[in-house]
Amino acid sequence: MGLFTSRKTVFVDSDILVIGGGFGGCGAAYESRYWGRDLKVVVVEKANIERSGAVAQGLYAINCYMGMQWDENQPEDHVRYARNDLMGLVREDLGYDIARHVDSSVHMFEEWGLPIMLDKETGRYQREGKWQIMIHGESYKPIIAEAARKAATEVYNRIMVTHLLMDKTRPNRVAGAVGFNVRDGNFYVFRSKAVIVAAGGASHIFKPHSVGEGMGRTWYAPWSSASAYALPIQVGAKMTQMENRIVLTRFKDGYGPVGAYFLHLKTTTENAYGENYEPTWYDSIKELVGDYVDHQPVPTCLRNHAFLQEVTAGRGPIRMVTKEAFKDPHKETVGWENFLGMTIGQAVVWASQNIDPKETNPELVMSEPYVMGSHATCSGAWASGPEDYAPSDYQWGYNRMMTVEGLFGAGDTIGGTAHKFSSGSFTEGRIAGKSAVRYVKDLGSDQPQLNETECEDLKAVVYQPMENYEVGRNEIVAGTVSPSYILPIHGLQRLEKIMDEYVGGTSTNYLTNEPMLTRGMELLSMLKEDLDHIGADSLHQLQRAWELQHRVWTSESVTRHTMFREETRWPGYYYRADHPKLDDTDWHCFTLSRYDPESGEWAMEKAPVHHIID
Ligand SMILES: Cc1cc2nc3c(=O)[nH]c(=O)nc-3n(C[C@H](O)[C@H](O)[C@H](O)COP(=O)(O)OP(=O)(O)OC[C@H]3O[C@@H](n4cnc5c(N)ncnc54)[C@H](O)[C@@H]3O)c2cc1C
Fold first, then answer.
1. Is the pTM for the entire model greater than 0.85?
2. What is the model's pLDDT at position 260?
3. Which residues pair with 174 in a beta bridge?
4. To 10 degrees, what angle do helices 344-352 and 329-342 make?
């Protein structure tokens, strides 16, 4: 018995277990209670749902709202928009399903107290863009969390889920999850009939621009640590579009958002010589991707591509032209409030660098890549679609159920559905919650059984990094260097370097090829071997150790998918230098992967993209 396995084990039974109390998780808890009045709904969250998740700091706009009550947009329009932005490849059934329900979620947010800005002339919600409405959103997350708290039977904060549990009587059926409390160190075994994973996306897979002391300054939250992907992957769920990492144009160093600037302030970009550079690249982009360059709005990745090409041509930095807009007091207020509502750090960066956007056009930068499923990107789990709408090969069970029975997902977890954002992720949580209730009710007495030996074994595995540290620390040769363990930060930096240099990060200008990916895979395998020797000197470091494990699993999936797709579908997100063009003949399809937990092998396949909407 290890030094740390004597820790207390707490058993929690539930009907529905929601992992992650962000936007998807809160939606799932809310809707599970609505349809399952008598069910036990448990939320488990590694932080505190009051201020957890990608947008814990607040938002200034809800980016997915149709406005059907005023006939502003229809769900079909949103599907066309997302499909266009993702260069043709989205799950139209899932996207449509979110779009047809998302307005009702936003109306509930307003009822619960979220201040939504109104257009004084029309009385409608103030639009920032075709899909975005403006909010006073500093308290967006606490408002949503309150609804989830009231809906859930129990919320367990500060518990990091490390593994899913499978049913001992029936293969491929989920039975719960395990994790540990990051404050008191207790081990938790959650037994549940249905599990909804809503654990957000992944930052710190690729090396960020800011390293050393500044490494926490990334666009995507540093605590979004890929559990949404690693948990399902390890139990054999199929994943899709994991190669579709996202790269964003943001204000330099603070990663302040640009949406309100482009859409509401109507600012434009220019190169270092004050020129509009995008038309310069039109012909060469057309060579690469054909007619996709003529689509409106121009897909996000193609605009990134023009930016990158211009900088490579030596005409950077690219700047946002703010001087004109900031002369208008209304626009100046919106420009600053936009940061104060969600990215205060950008205002601080400008202050510290003597940048007054009235006097200086601020620099933009292309971010490092992130893995997520709810923004202008769609990595995630392969999910069954809505019964009334999905083509038959997109349906094998309950809506939003993965290829593992009883395992559902929402938000960044689910692949193929870009542009759902906060409101769409919450809505997808609601869809998954409703579906999970139906699944639980249909189960009747056929309930999943836990394998107690497996739980005991996992307990030893979970605390092993603390044991490694306790035993190995006496051998420290200097500072933090030990011959018998690596610290989580060492492993993280090694991972980021591998992904950055071989899988298309910033240091290769987002470029990779088969030999680079092959070498990346070799280095990842060596890193995986060393993960058995991570040392954690505290519960905090134990959490870092498990976050690293989840990031490494996800990185492997990203690398395998990137290798499989032999084309450059999204120039500006990444480039397969050995297949530099978009290839609709062979690759107008989804990429699917499955890790087999029995054999330890991965299998890749293609799945058709069904265009349901014209
Ligand atoms: C920088 C940024 C800006 C954005 N701006 C906008 C915007 O302006 N408007 C808009 O509408 N949307 C915006 N979005 C999108 C929106 O934030 C996401 O779509 C939404 O948060 C996704 O919901 P989710 O539930 O998948 O993930 P999250 O909301 O991130 O929630 C995931 C939750 O899971 C928890 N968790 C993770 N791992 C574990 C684990 N192992 N165990 C237990 N708990 C775990 C996390 O702590 C977190 O609470 C933005 C996103 C980012 C990153």
1. yes
2. 84
3. 166
4. 110
3-state secondary structure (DSSP) of residue 405: strand
Minimum mean pLDDT range among 126-140, 164-178, 239-253, 465-479: 465-479
| Residue 311 amino acid letter | V
C-alpha 605: how far from chain center:
23
Q: What are the helix and strand counts (H, E) for the chain?
A: 16, 19
Section 349-371 average pLDDT: 95
Would you state the structure tokens that stand for residue 409, as one six-digit string? 């997902």
Establish whether residue 409 lines the binding site of ligand 1, counting it when its CB lies within 6 angstroms of any ligand atom. no
Residue nearest to atom 1 of ligand 1 (CA): 220
Q: Is the CB of 155 under 6 A from ligand 1?
A: no
CA distance 383 to 397: 9
CB of 63 within 6 A of ligand 1: the answer is yes
Number of other residues whose CB lies within 10 A of the CB of residue 128: 23
Nearest-CA residue for ligand 1 atom 27 is 200
Contacts of 265 (CB under 8 A, 6+ apart): 322, 325, 331, 334, 335
CA–centroid distance, 374 to ligand 1, in Å, is 9
The confidence score (pLDDT) of residue 3 equals: 64
Give the tokens for residue 477. 């040769």
pLDDT of residue 190: 98
Cα 501 to middle of ligand 1, angstroms? 27
pLDDT level of residue 301 (50, 70, 90 thresholds): very high
Q: Is 189 in the pocket of ligand 1 (CB under 6 A)?
A: no
Give the Å distance between the CA of 55 and the centre of ligand 1: 6
DSSP, res 464: H
The pLDDT value recorded for residue 216 is 82
| pLDDT higher than threshold 70 for residue 4 | no
Say yes or no to pLDDT of 363 above 90. Answer: yes
Ligand 1 atom index nearest CA of 24: 25
Distance CA(219)–CA(367), nearest Å, equals 7
Determine contact, residues 377/282, Cβ cutoff 8 Å.
no
Calculate the CA 324 to chain-centre distance.
Answer: 35
Instruction: Answer yes or no: is the C-beta of 412 below 6 A from any ligand 1 atom.
Output: yes
pLDDT at 2: 61
CA distances from 458 to 161, 406, 529 (A): 12, 21, 18
CB distance 134 to 142 below 8 Å: no
- Regarding the beta carbon of 338 and ligand 1, being less than 6 Å apart is answered no
Query: Is residue 104 scored above 70 in pLDDT?
Result: yes
CB distance 571 to ligand 1 below 6 Å: no
Q: What is the CA radius of gyration of the chain?
A: 23
**Residues facing 137 on adjacent strands:** 59
Q: How many angstroms is it from 200 CA to the middle of ligand 1?
A: 5
Euclidean distance between CA atoms 340 and 58, whole angstroms: 9
Distance 397 CA to ligand 1 centre (A): 26
Annotate 37-51 with three-state secondary structure: CCCCEEEECCCCHHH
Asked if residue 180 has its Cβ within 6 Å of ligand 1, the reply is no
Query: For every residue of 191-202, which 3-state class applies, written as one string?
Result: EEEEEEECCCCE
Give 43-90 as a DSSP string: EE-SS-GGG-STTTT-EEEE-----GGGTS--HHHHHHHHHHHTTT--
Residue 258 Cβ inside 6 Å of ligand 1? The answer reads no
Task: Supply the pLDDT for residue 106.
Answer: 98
Residue whose CA lies nearest to ligand 1 atom number 31: 22
Averaged pLDDT of the chain? 96
